[in-house]
Amino acid sequence: MKAVPFVAVILVMLIAGPPFLASYWVGLLTQMLIFALLAMSLDVLLGYTGLPSLGHAGFFGVAAYAVAVLSTTYHAGFWTCVMSGILIGTLLSTLLGLLVSHVRDVYFLMITLASGMVLWGLSYRWIPVTGGDNGISGIPRLDAHAGLPFAGPVAFYYVTLLVFVVSASLLALLVSSPFGFTLRGIRENELRMKSLGFNTWLHCWVSYIIAGAFASVSGVVWAYYNGFVSPTYLDLTASSELFLMVTLGGPGTLVGPVIGAGAIVLLKNVISAYTQRWPLILGTFYIITMFGAPQGLWNLGRRRRASS
Amino acid sequence: MKIADRPIADRRCFAPRRSVFVVVLLVAAGNVIVGQRPEALPIKIGFIAPLSGPNAQNGRDILNGFLLYLQEIGSGVDGRRIDVIIEDDEAIPAVGLTKTRKLVERDKVHLMAGALLSSTGYALAPYIDAMRIPMLYPVVSADDLTQRRRSKWIVRTGYSGSQPNHAFGEYAYHTLGLKKVATIALDYAFGWESVGGFQRTFEAEGGLVAQKIWCPVFVHDFAPYLAQIPRDVDAVYALFLGRSALQFMRQYQEFGLKQRVRLIGAGTTTDEHVLPFMGDEALGVVTALHYTAALDTPANRKFVAAYRARYNRVPSYYSESMYTGAKWLVTAVEVVHGNVEDSATLVDALRHVKLTDAPRGPLELDDYGNPIENVYIRRVERVNGQLQNTVIETIPRVSQFWKYNPADYLKQPLYARR
Amino acid sequence: MIYIITQFLNGLFSAALLFLIAGGLTLVFGVMRIVNIAHGSFYMLGVYVAYTVIARTDSLLLGTIAAVLLVAAVGLAVERLFLRRFASRPLPQMMMTMGFALVFRDAAFMIWGGDPFTLPYPALLAGSVETRDIVFPAYRLFVMLVAAVVGLLLWVLNEHTLIGAKLRATVDDPEMAAATGINVALVSGGVFAAGAALAAFGGVMGGPILGGYAGMDLDLLPLAFVVVIIGGMGSLKGALVGSIAVGLIDNFGKALVPELSYFTLFAPMVIVLAIKPTGLYGRG
User: Fold this and answer.
1) Which residues of chain B does C128 touch, with a Cβ-Cβ cutoff of 8 Å?
2) Which of 2.40.50.140, 3.90.870.10, 3.40.50.2300, 3.10.180.10 is the CATH number of B163-289+374-411?
3) Whose CA, among A48, B243, B377, C203, lies 20 to 30 Å from C89?
4) Domain extents for chain C?
């Protein structure tokens, strides 16, 4: 619980800051929160259960597509869209989870990569529903669709913050529960957990479903934030970037992915405003970070504090 | 019109050579600033295109054309300097939107230009409309952007995907004398719209598209698709671009098809962004597009020479797109006397520009915001050792609706895969 | 019938190319447990280096040799200077290779620009072999032959030489191998360099047909992974069987049900892994 003061300070800043920021920065901050939530959901798998997923953006994308299709083609109401987005994403992770939960390590990496590619292919080729490569635009604005009394980037930001805080609290409860400790046990030594009588397959499956559910939540917010969806939401690049956010920030913690997501969103947008060589700089940054903090930025700080 | 001696400043530099150029101009500018109206703030133009990743080659061509024109006019408009702020959209629509937000909300640009992919084009439209910022699409060719899903604030100076192909379908039937054709194309909206446009007019004249083969966009090895081409067709119509065009040409010859079945296609298949990297396998291929670097007009000769001199390469249609796009923007800004703050007047001016001396020839917009322009039927030939798209026929003033009545045309669905 | 023979040959050609690229990937994984995301970058660098050298010297042979040696050297440097520190920690290693993939991609863009190109055919192999009804490019047959030779060499090296014995020992149990006096670090460095060289060689072999272009590094990487996964990571035999299976399924799939072009590659992999989580010849 060393993270408490840090989290408190950040939270106060997140609540109090935005009214004083320009709309562009509020937008970036909103993006950071959405990706932070997504990264946290991946971390349940990657960091806590030890299951590296390279297809996690799939759930994010599928939920976003659900919102887009329902709100544009079927003119569904706000809550229908939101609940369907989350449900469809979760249902998908439930089904896919049946297929992948007995796979481990690098094979898990690969089977999720493959399932992610299949989902991407679907978004690309199921044209009557997804609009193919053009995607779907014209998702109604959040304030109009939900009937909010206020509009604009700051209002959207606070809605996102609320979703983020609620989800993060739920995830924090989860990882500090007996269930969460069992997941860590599986990560460290699955055989022992098995011999202790735990059904490790079931735990992995449930962890996969939960990760998919929270990824869907962030996908729903992302769909409203951008107002459109396209296949790039769930392609391999998106999944790898997500993977980087978690490993960079610190897998196996909830603060780490938030830091990772914030750092990558910020770096990409700030560096690319100054140089076209930003991929080079970003790549170098990854390499250097792995050198200095192989367990992620947040864990580096923790180790320092622990040793001093 | 008063032209002040102030330079164009690009905020970011693409090549070292250019950074030198900018610095020199800025130093020179220091002497001229004195005595200018204090209220003459710069006109800010936001530009986005893919400048990294697989589509960077096209993004760079577009940017190069833009910068070349701004360098040529060498100064601002009506006493106002032109500042271009360049951002990389990575060919990802969400990134394009984020960068556009940055340009509009943080950099406070007066107008926007750029974008390459249709998906980015569609993704930006609602935001552009909400922010009431005029935006120019020099390349994005999705038909519906100027048809069933029009935007008030977006002006397209490029072309719609089916536009040159309508003209080409008729030409292929009558002049090339083709009766039965198979098509092979990339399996996405640009492919469907181009093939759909060709098929419509080709079949309306009496021809037959016997088979349509679609290749996924990540295709590398065309062998499984080439084997499906029927042997009894008069020609194969191909739509590819970039590396897929290069690979397709190679493999079409490799499998002995070039000697057996005539190859025709969409303009991108032999556009100058890939043509210099092809060999004899491309000779004789006939395609249609609204531009070719080999177009023999004074305006184009001047453009090609200037482009070659500055970038040491032949301009592609992407390069020309934003050279003409920049000319279009500047003309509109002149019409409103540099008063770019009034975006409603500006977008109105943007819709009523007429260019007579663009490199590609004359162009003006129809009522739906898409250019009416010449379509050139080109044949690949080797001239002085280099491949070029020689014009064999000019079809003047082609509209996106071809010869059809716009209202009737729009009642039909968009060209799809079928 | 002709159609089926042609598609069968096409499938074998895909398999040959895939085997050259996936062979190095599986080797590196087997010995070092590294999921090498930068493998595609080595493939790309090979093509670019060959392109430059061929443009200067007009010699395909020189271009190939230069590409293989230079990329091997780059691979060795990456392994020694960066990956070595994280031996047997797969996640940081994978992250690092992701970082390198990004760096190599952008560096290549900076040095060579984003223009696509193809490598020239060897003059002897530019034509095609024609029987009564079948036309098949000579160069594709040549690539199949080369892949077979490479496969045979790797097999002999692995099964019948001292290096191979050390390699197998390291694959089976690195700690035990170290205890018996095998220089595991040397073996690892050598294998990583060899894997990179093989990727570069595969790139050059495919060069006259697929060429080089921006984004090629990540284009073929998923395919190579599919092969390695279906075959079982770390198994040479698996890579061979996997590439033939993938090559044939992909070609026939695209030809017979073009509607499913986007899925013919990945769906089989999901199914294989769902049934046998370590691939056909992999060990758990």
Assistant:
1) 254-256
2) 3.40.50.2300
3) C203
4) 20-219
- CATH classification of the domain holding A264: 1.10.3470
Based on the structure, what is the number of domains in chain A? Answer: 1
With beta carbons under 8 A apart, name residues in chain A contacting C279: 107
Which chain C residues in 98-117 lie under 8 Å from chain B, judged by CB atoms?
106, 109, 113-117
Q: What is the CATH number of domain B9-159+296-369?
A: 3.40.50.2300
In the 3-class helix/strand/coil scheme, how is chain B assigned residue by residue? CCCCCCCCEECCCCCHHHHHHHHHHHHHHHCCCCCCCCCCCCEEEEEEECCCCCCHHHHHHHHHHHHHHHHHHCCCECCECEEEEEEECCCCHHHHHHHHHHHHHHCCCCEEEECCCHHHHHHHHHHHHHHCCCEEECCCCCHHHHCCCCCCCEEECCCCCCHHHHHHHHHHHHCCCCCEEEEEEECCHHHHHHHHHHHHHHHHCCCEEEEEEEECCCCCCCHHHHCCCCCCCCEEEEECCHHHHHHHHHHHHHCCCCCCCEEEEEHHHHCCCCHHHCCHHHCCCEEEECCCCCCCCHHHHHHHHHHHHHHCCCCCHHHHHHHHHHHHHHHHHHHCCCCCCCHHHHHHHHHCCEEEEECCEEEEECCCCCEEEEEEEEEEEEECCEEEEEEEEEEEEECCCCCCCHHHHHHCCCCCCC
Nearest chain C residue to B90 by CA distance is C215
Domain that includes residue A295, residue range = 3-307
The pTM is what? 0.88
CB < 8 Å to A242, chain B: none
